[in-house]
């Protein structure tokens, strides 16, 4: 008989696998998540899958629709614009605050993450993961737990946008150049410059996201 630790680990494993399926586009926005099919997908029983779906619902990644069940949340064009508008506000605030508080170690981590993104430019999944770590590092450096919590909520929303726009080397090079601009301002303690660079970066990301929707 499985003990409680097995249940917890299986629930976490089911959550991680379902989340990754959503990130990769295997479960696209609007997709229905049937427990039996999801269990087959992640190679686990329905119980941990049910727990994982509930957690994804609580995070706003999955929603329950009447007479349908669990569905990967999808955003309208207007919701996507609103999401990026809020990202611009939060990222500019985080960059401005990080310019005051970031340690040399955190600046070094940002440089390492950006270099790793360039090195992995042909691996969209890896670049996407490193990109999220880069932005999370800035929010951590801002030293504000409420700002960090807001970032996590937006990260969950970004998750349901579908495949990453970081799918070609030219796009990755542009992102890394904009990251360099942010790092330079942070290293100089230039809060205004960091905020401007961060805002420009997210505005560019919005342009690419909207372009991907038209293709």
UniProtKB/TrEMBL annotation:
> What keywords tag this UniProt record?
DNA-binding, Transcription, Transcription regulation
Family matches, as SUPFAM superfamilies: GntR ligand-binding domain-like, Winged helix' DNA-binding domain
Quote the InterPro entries the UniProt record gives. Answer: AsnC-type_HTH_dom (IPR000485), GntR_C (IPR011711), TF_FadR/GntR_C (IPR008920), Tscrpt_reg_HTH_GntR (IPR000524), WH-like_DNA-bd_sf (IPR036388), WH_DNA-bd_sf (IPR036390)
Q: Does the keyword Ribonucleoprotein apply?
A: no
What are the coiled-coil residue ranges?
Answer: none
Q: Which residues form the HTH gntR-type domain?
A: 8-75
User: What is the residue range of the signal peptide feature?
Assistant: none
GO molecular function annotations of the record: DNA-binding transcription factor activity; sequence-specific DNA binding
Report the protein name in the record. Answer: GntR family transcriptional regulator
